[in-house]
Amino acid sequence: MVISLMFLSISLSAQFYKPNxxxxxxxxxxxxxxxxxxxxFVDMQTDSLYTAxxxxxxxxxxxxxxxxxxxxxxxxxxxxxxxxxxxxxxADFEVVPVAYEPFLxxxxxxxxxxxxxxxxxxxxxxxxxxxxxxxxxxxxxxxxYQGKVIAKPKWDYATIExxxxxxxxxxxxxxxxxxxxxxxxxxxxxxxxxxxxxxVYGNSEAKIGRYxxxxxxxxxxxxxxxxxxxMYAINVPLSHIYxxxxxxxxHPLLDWREGNxxxxxxxxxxxxQFLSDRPKQSVDGDLETDSVHEAWNRKNLYSFVIQREGxxxxxxxxxxxxxxxxxxFQDLLGIYADIYPYKILKYATLRTDDLASTLKRLGEPVxxxxxxxxxxxxxxxxxxxxxLTGRVTRYLQTLTDEDLEYGMLVDSTGxxxxxxCDFLLPKYKRLTYKELKDLLSQFGIQITIENKRVPALLIxxxxxxxxx
Length: 468
Prior knowledge:
Elements: E1 2-5, H1 33-36, E2 39-43, E3 49-52, E4 61-67, H2 72-87, E5 93-99, H3 108-116, E6 121-124, H4 129-132, E7 140-145, E8 148-151, H5 160-167, E9 174-177, E10 199-202, E11 206-210, E12 218-225, E13 228-237, H6 238-246, E14 262-265, H7 268-274, H8 287-300, E15 301-309, H9 314-332, E16 335-352, H10 355-362, E17 374-376, E18 379-384, H11 385-397, E19 409-411, E20 420-426, H12 433-441, E21 445-461
Parallel strand pairs: 1-9, 4-5, 14-21, 16-19
Antiparallel strand pairs: 2-3, 2-6, 4-7, 7-8, 10-11, 11-15, 12-13, 13-15, 16-21, 17-18, 18-20
Helix pairs in contact: 6-9
């Protein structure tokens, strides 16, 4: 028995690849070149670094176990595989850990390996296998046997029973983690093999479909392709869809969470059926538990796309999407959303009357470089606007004469958080509100304290006849 599951484990987008032309999926034969590509390995017991290929494992069950030094669940999973390897030394399988990090003395991976000292040859600084077997979370496993990709099991199904079943040609009992596919933005969405799924709403401009098995979750993106503006998301919850549709009307200090940026005025029966917390996945290879989790995904996750001709502003895209979302889910679920006055918040706002002057005062990194924050003659050097707003937030959290909620800050200057700067600030100390205003004035930035009711999203039931 094999269940396919979309699995969101710990993720760090910088190390992961999207599905591509070289992606190898379950059932695919691996090319001969797969075994001859040179990789960098480290002996986890001796720290010996060397180059080799995967050909010694060609006639065995090869288990690739993608991991990282910072990933606790990965270390737990790899420790389990270590125990299996030591307990069954004659079993015809090999485990090869695969890390994207380089092995360099003093860095995280080397430090972690020196603590573990496990009997593995770990592939390090990988940029090949992660590309062949794309995933958006770790730990992630790939099983290769007799020249084919036979499984990509959730880590807790890597048991000796399933390993022996593979080696003896018997059926396994496991959950596969499918993260192999991604939407092709240049093809029609949700049909003909491009995220094919049940479409619950559609017209010439927008489509809303259900959960797509085997596709990576993609949170809302807006892209410009071949004369069109495309806004889409794949396998996201209902709250995410509503928040993204109304995002520019909801106060920027609020978010998608219920009771924060979204208020659901709905019956308990609806809440239980459609807004219940996602069931937890098993940690001990329990098929029934993971089947419940997958059933929840199929019922509660959605995918959407809205496309308009030309270069369309983000605000216009979201406003158009609001209409489609309300039309879709009023008909499908009997609910309707609109902005309403929420609670009173006390927070700070940054503004500038002369953006060009402020950017000049913030300075520019030398030769485009952004060195880290460091001490210079008792002051700290900052090299990004994000660092400045972070410092301001810290000041707000400890103001001696104002009581702000959580030091909340809204930046209305129009400056990108990634904008490179080069300026000095005095060593941190608690300030009064006036002192903070004076400090920011050197950059032409004004700070004001707001104390007002803010807009949020109300989602309510409008159809009494809706049958749950």
